[in-house]
Amino acid sequence: MSDELDELYQxxxxxxxxxxxxxxxxxxxxxxxxxxxxLCGDNYKVYVKMDGxxxxxxxxxGSGCCISKASASLMTxxxxxxxxxxxxxxxxxVHDMITTGRVAAQGVGKLAVFAGVHKFPARVKCAILxxxxxVAAVDGAETPVSTE
Length: 148
Ligand code: ZN
Hints:
Layout: H1 3-18, E1 31-37, E2 42-51, E3 54-63, H2 66-79, H3 84-100, H4 121-138, E4 145-146
Parallel strand pairs: 1-4
Antiparallel strand pairs: 1-2, 2-3
Helix pairs in contact: 1-2, 2-4, 3-4
Bound molecules: zinc ion (ZN).
Zinc ion (ZN) binds near residues 42, 64, 65 and 126.
């Protein structure tokens, strides 16, 4: 990855950290997932409104570091309109990318900005936290989710 690309990715992450999208309570939410990362203090609730098998809407609330917040922001944008199966497939791609730095040829879209996180192992949990909460929510789990 070139330095210029790294810089662009950092700008996107900073933008979503300062102005998180979907950072609100979700009216009519049908599912809730919680994620807590004790290593960093990231603590989020992810709200999902399911319409059958489709994620009709998603939002999040909570607090944490810049990477965790930007990840939740981009994630809630990315999963809207996707089916439960598609969300899980996307999670698998994102998880692989964040832990190895490999960017799938297709499918991750803007989420590619987190590919560089694999160079900072301590931040991997930050980037993946909201995803664990989301998948738990989509699966209908009601217990809090920890990445530990
Ligand atoms: Zn964090």
